[in-house]
Design a protein that fits this description.
Layout lengths: L17 H6 L2 H13 L2 E6 L12 E3 L8 E5 L10
Parallel strand pairs: 1-2
Antiparallel strand pairs: 1-3
């Protein structure tokens, strides 16, 4: 998914430079990711500048992810397997 911007316009945002990082809504992004963590997702792939690499919760740096985030690592013990 695309990174969340402060102006909420949904347009493309590149966060691995100072200009993009200024437009990035870190608070909303982390709130969203924390809600996903509560629902069983626990791994997010991003690409930021080195100075910002620890700002996005539960994220790992990976090349070519400067304009989008991967949401992965689903695990939830609360899901039941229902056999009919």
């Amino acid at each position: 998914m695309r990174y969340l911007k402060t102006n909420k316009d949904g347009a493309l945002l590149i966060i691995n430079d100072d200009d993009g990082w200024k437009k990035f809504d870190l608070t909303r992004q982390n709130e969203f990711l924390n809600s996903l963590i509560l629902r069983g997702f626990n791994d997010f792939l991003v690409l930021t500048q080195d100075k910002n690499k620890d700002e996005i919760v539960n994220s790992k740096q990976i090349a070519k992810h400067h304009n989008h985030i991967h949401i992965q690592g689903f695990f939830n013990n609360n899901i039941e397997n229902i056999n009919k």
